[in-house]
Design brief:
The protein has strands spanning 3-5, 29-34, 47-51, 54-61, 66-74, 79-83, 95-99, 102-109, 117-125, 130-134, 146-150, 153-157, 168-172, 177-181, 193-197, 200-204, 207-208, 211-212, 216-220, 225-229, 244-248, 251-255, 266-270, 275-279, 291-295, 298-302, 305-306, 309-310, 314-322. It contains no helices and 29 strands. The protein has a 5-stranded antiparallel beta sheet with strand order 1-11-12-13-14, with no helix packed on it. A 4-stranded antiparallel beta sheet has the order 2-29-26-25, with no helix packed on it. The termini are far apart.
Length: 327
Amino acid sequence: MSLRVWMCGCLPLLVLLGACNDDDDDDILGNWTRQAYFEGVARSSAVSFVMGEKAYVGTGYDGDERLKDFWSYDPARDTWTQVADFEGVARNAAVAFAVGNYGFIGTGYSDADPNGYLADFWRYDAVANTWTPVAEFAGGARQYAVAFAANGFGYVGTGYASNHFNDFYRYDPSADTWTKVASIKGEKRQGASAFVAGSRAYVGLGVSNGAYLSDFWAYDPEGDAWTEAADLSDYDGSARGYALSFAIADRGYIGAGTSSGSLRDFWEYNPVDDSWTQRTSFEGTGRNYGVAFSIGSYGYMGLGTSSGGYYDDFWRFAPLDEYDDED
């Protein structure tokens, strides 16, 4: 079973400056290294998806306006290249995923739209460097939803538009159709995080009616069913919203986010024994609403906002390396 997940500007993703973890990172596995700065303007609530060996990052909000530029990141060269601007209205708080040779982006928020919240969806062809509109999201307009891809389908759910959602929909790119699937259990939420580990997708955390959440739920796309997974708070991790997430091999990773303040702690999920283990804290400034993705054996995190500032830095995470405070 082939599954991939991208946190939207939903990756959805991240944190406010402040409450750092005082844990001794020398005793915790995982190492962060700074990568090339994102070459677009600093921003929050962007989206990202991965096709092949490159990541694509775009849209978002820079504190003054919503954006529609898009950029490609090549980890082999550690370089950013601008690609065709997104052809929908400029937005933030959208979702994105990739299936096969195409990336997909939709929903979000735009002050240029009379309704604010958006339901449109678009397909990106990296070979032709073009955008094409596809079927509108069947769940209706919303922001800060979450998305992942599994077995040739995209999945989008949760989010907010005057109220919170717990519904999920599956997108079939070959038929250009949306089908309602099982809703996530637990609270309705926005600003959730998602990753894929093994044969299941995992969705959790987020904000519901002003309360930050720490629960996680495992989704089986074959059986269209949700089961409860280990709660992050059971392992001393804090409830939070807008955390960043990605998967490497058969493990899921989440970190940063916000609750009563900004968080930089970072956690690894093992689906075999349904457990969380703390890893080296994120070494960038704490932030909210960033983006995260994985390529090969590395995870990447960057962008976002905290305390009124916006970020354009990017960091690479090596889960099997020992912490090195000199790099």
